Amino acid sequence: MIKVAAVSGKMRLAAYLALFVASVAMQGGLSSASPYTGVVAQFQVVISVLITLLCSFWGFVVSFAANACLFVFLITRYFMLGDQNVLPGVVICASTVLVTAIIGKYKKVVGTQKDAILDGRLSLERKCAEAQAAEERAAFLATHDEATGLANERNLRNRLAGYVSGQALETGPCGVLLVKVENMRHISLVLGSRFAVAVLQALSKRIEPLLGQDVCLLSLFRHDTFAMLFADAVAMHKMSSDILGVLQANVVIKDVNVKVGVHAGAVVDDGRTGNAEQIMQCAELALLYAVRTRCAEVVVYDESVARAEKRRVEIIAALDGALANNEFSLVYQPQVDVLTGAIKGAEALLRWNSRNLGSVSPGEFIPLAEETQHIATVGRWILDQACKDASQWPEQWTVSVNISTVQLLNDDFKSHISGALSRANLDPQRLKLEITESIMIDDMEFVNSLLSDVKKLMVRVVLDDFGSGFSSLSYIKNIHLDELKIDKTFTQSVSGDKRSQGVLKAIVRLADELGLTITAEGVETQCQAELLANLGFHRLQGFLYGRPMHTVELLKLVVQ
Ligand code: C2E
Ligand code: CA
Ligand code: CA
């Protein structure tokens, strides 16, 4: 319809222009060739009036302009060449301009009736075309993502709802696979939203060829997640690893190379999961679990996923107010000298006895306390309490406190330490801070200046769980450390495993070269203790020497 209106408009304009040229040619030719006669004058007036009347607004413009131009031409001729013949033409042109002007004004009532019908029809056609296009677009946007053109979440949910209600006993279980593209927000912020859309489009093009007839719909979910609805869950299982595989490769757009990570969650609906809403919820929970645990494979929803996520929510809720309710306590695990077996200090380990959840293990709640920043306030309490308890111990004993990266990066960390030391009146040299290798993934220069600042307080810094995570050894020589503490997995593999002993031997040498004390934790047997002593470890810690205990219990060990 837009096309029709456009063609009609063009034809009308062409007609006006043709009349204009004809008018100028006729009127100009006649008037300059010979003096004006009554016929010529009448011809000029008639054609001008006709154009004005028939062709509406543009007719009026053409007619008016033609007569005005002719008037200028003739008057110039009169003044420049003294051509007396043009004088009647000048008068006729002037009066025709006047007549067309009057008609033009009057025509608003008469002439526009036809035009109004034509214009009205055209504008109606245009409006209809626009309305239809808008309607089509709205219908498309209701079911598709505007930027990528992929089916949207609503479309997916509707399709799933229809599928679930219609599936009954006809086919086997269906499946929903969600594949989240990590760092899309980052890509969008750094390289622009258009680039991010292009990345998603490029990735969807990789998925499409893999999807056979088994897939009902490929859609975009929450801006960064591909959602696929499979009619056949078996096909989903088969295809999902291929889908993850094709998404691993970097995306190159206009010479810009980006790395995208993916995580995937899926649900299989055997008709018992519930309605479409509940199926999607399960798929999302599985995806959440995959993202959180950084699982490289597809996590398929089951009861254990649901339980883990529920527990997580409960722990996060229970952490609020736990400190105020005195639900935390500290226990201490002794560390002994490898040669004499005498206690040289103890490591403070946090315990949480929640009012609602009962006893929760640190392995479970500390990562959540870090995630929710609760560790900042709890960490301050730990430092205070550990220093206070240690101030009651024999003077040669040290106290080791585990420090989360979140705490260490806190601006007030140094003042927390000095505050805790001065409140407990504890010698700074008796405090050891246990940090983990995870801190090393941050800006090394920054971490180093932070640690050298902390060390100005005269406290000691221990690298905990050494060898368990980040592999680069280069940082060891640069950062300000006093002690290495090897992970208990090393300790526990030392007996009977020659290769592990070889690695430990190398670590001990490294520590010696760098002048660091070296401690082994997780010592459970006499055999392990002897092997570690022979390898050159300085201190040992583990169930062999004592389980984590309250400070009162620990003090009893002094007497023995
Ligand atoms: P970690 O710092 O490596 O602590 C040593 C863990 O090994 C403790 O577990 C301890 O009970 C356990 N352990 C000690 N000796 C043995 C042994 O001979 N055999 C075995 N199998 N295990 C042994 P726990 O208390 O459950 O703490 C787990 C982790 O939670 C700690 O690992 C530490 O990363 C974190 N954590 C504990 N307390 C705190 C704290 O106050 N602050 C922070 N930020 N993290 C803490
Ligand atoms: Ca530790
Ligand atoms: Ca450790």
How is this structure best summarized?
With 560 residues, this protein is of the alpha/beta class.
Secondary-structure blueprint:
Blueprint: H1 2-33, H2 38-54, H3 56-81, H4 87-107, H5 112-143, H6 153-167, E1 174-181, H7 184-191, H8 193-207, E2 215-221, E3 225-230, H9 233-248, E4 251-253, E5 256-258, E6 262-269, H10 276-292, E7 298-300, H11 303-319, E8 328-337, E9 343-354, E10 358-360, H12 362-371, H13 374-390, E11 398-402, H14 405-408, H15 413-424, E12 431-436, H16 444-455, E13 460-466, H17 474-478, E14 483-486, H18 488-493, H19 498-513, E15 517-520, H20 526-535, E16 539-541, H21 551-559
Parallel strand pairs: 6-7, 9-11, 11-12, 12-13, 13-14, 14-15, 15-16
Antiparallel strand pairs: 1-3, 1-6, 2-3, 4-5, 8-9, 8-16, 9-10
The chain binds ligand C2E and calcium ion (CA) (2 copies).
Arithmetic mean of pLDDT? 86
Q: What ligands does this structure carry?
A: ligand C2E, calcium ion
Assign a percent range to the helix content.
Answer: 55-70%
Count the E strands: 16
Q: Strand arrangement, largest sheet?
A: 8-9-11-12-13-14-15-16
Organism: Fundidesulfovibrio magnetotacticus
Protein name: Putative signaling protein
GO molecular function, one term: cyclic-guanylate-specific phosphodiesterase activity
Keywords: Membrane, Transmembrane, Transmembrane helix
How does this model look, in words?
The chain folds into 3 domains: 122 residues; 149 residues, 2-Layer Sandwich (Alpha-Beta Plaits), CATH 3.30.70.270; 213 residues, TIM Barrel. The protein is built from 21 helices and 16 strands. The longest helix has 32 residues. The protein is elongated and about 135 Å long. The relative contact order is 0.05. The structure holds ligand C2E and calcium ion (2 copies). The site of ligand C2E has 21 residues, from strand 9, helix 12 and strand 13.
